[in-house]
Design goal:
With 225 residues, the protein is an all-beta fold. Helix content is 2%, strand content 53%.
Amino acid sequence: MAPDTTNIYISYYDDTSHNLKFAVATHFVFPTFTFSTVDSTNDMGQYSSIAAVNDTSVDNGQTVYISYYDATSGDLKLTSSTNSGSPFSVSTVVSSGDVGQFSSIAIVDPTTVFISYFEDAPIASGNKLRMVRSADYGVTFEDPATVDTDQSVGEHNDISLVGTTNVFVSYLDNTAGPGFGGLVCPKHRAELERSIWSSSIQRVSYLRPDSSGPISEWRVPQGRR
């Protein structure tokens, strides 16, 4: 769900029709939702994540983004609307491998979009947590940045922005049992050159039950966060 000052936006997967759907309401106290189908091409819409941002360059002042998984092709997809969800424009973000499950989207401003996602890879190479960035309304994306490749990592990830200088991603690590990871990627505009996009990712915290590590890591009891 992505509320703004006037609307409530919700993206979701219709398990009956296997479509990506969208709901919008214009009243917070007594909301009445209007529903629509965003993508109905084969099996679309699992693991959707939605974000809305004020945009003075469009008529109604709102741009809505939804990232989601194309289960038919195994791709990460993005759809966006500059008119509160009518209509949406659909594009493929990443199509290499089985990518896009557990997607999470965050917006810096109307033009800058970050998406973190899970890459389901063969056992030999290990699953991966990856992240992509667009600086042109999601029209084009930079090459994916690999955040973590420590065997079974990246499910249930969630991306969040703090100010305009840091991106944080939390995620599940199943390598040694249930746990959480935390990473930060500096994204100051002076550091957004592609040459340092991957290398700028730094581990700042890492939580895993019954594990030991350097002082930058700490333990949490099983089942607690």
